[in-house]
Amino acid sequence: MIEDVKFMTEVEIEKENAAITKAYKELLKVSYQTLTSDDKKLIRSAFDVAVDAHKDQRRKSGEAYIFHPIAVAKIVASEIGLDATCIAAALLHDVVEDNPNYTLEDIERLFGKTVARIVDGLTKISSMSKETNVSAQAENFRKMLLTLNDDVRVIIIKIADRLHNMQTMDAMPP
């Protein structure tokens, strides 16, 4: 669901940046009571990296791609009630997959082993082939169950990702 950036006027860019800032503030508001100062720094750093990684990407709807990871992070925070580590991982869930300038090693260096492990699990699930072959589907399901054993947060964040994709399917052709 990624498109290249179209030409935008300064006014459109300002409006979009204001909307991104508003979405970020809403994300913080939904879990504000439970966040420590370090949690807020972690989330802000993840947000900054995600904004940079997705700055030239747009969704099929035409909106800036960054709205998707913010929405996934909001689902993780407000509807599932996960912690700052998961919120950060949700913000970063497409960074390594979508931007060659960021590696898993970068994520680990910037955010630690736990966030990197979750992002790696999310990237692996996304890269599973969309096979119609029953045995390939079974193998993908087996890999996903093994991921569950590694860290259940990977599957929970992936479900939030899929939920947001389903909520925004109206931008996709039939």
> Helical percent range?
55-70%
Shape: globular
Can you count the helices?
Answer: 9
What is the strand content? under 5%
Q: SS-based structural class?
A: mainly alpha
Extended strand count: 2
Largest sheet: 2 strands, antiparallel
**Biggest sheet, spatial arrangement of strands:** 1-2
Characterization of this structure:
This protein has 174 residues and is mostly helical. The protein has 9 helices and 2 strands; from the N terminus they run E-H-H-E-H-H-H-H-H-H-H. It has helices at residues 10-30, 37-53, 67-79, 84-92, 95-98, 104-111, 113-127, 134-150, 152-167; strands at 2-4, 57-59. The protein has a two-stranded antiparallel ribbon with strand order 1-2. Helix 2 packs parallel to helix 4 (84-92) and helix 3 packs across helix 9 (152-167). It is globular and about 50 Å long.
What's the gist of this structure?
This protein has helices spanning 10-30, 37-53, 67-79, 84-92, 95-98, 104-111, 113-127, 134-150, 152-167; strands at residues 2-4, 57-59.
Keywords:
174 residues, two-stranded antiparallel ribbon
Indicate the topology.
Blueprint: E1 2-4, H1 10-30, H2 37-53, E2 57-59, H3 67-79, H4 84-92, H5 95-98, H6 104-111, H7 113-127, H8 134-150, H9 152-167
Antiparallel strand pairs: 1-2
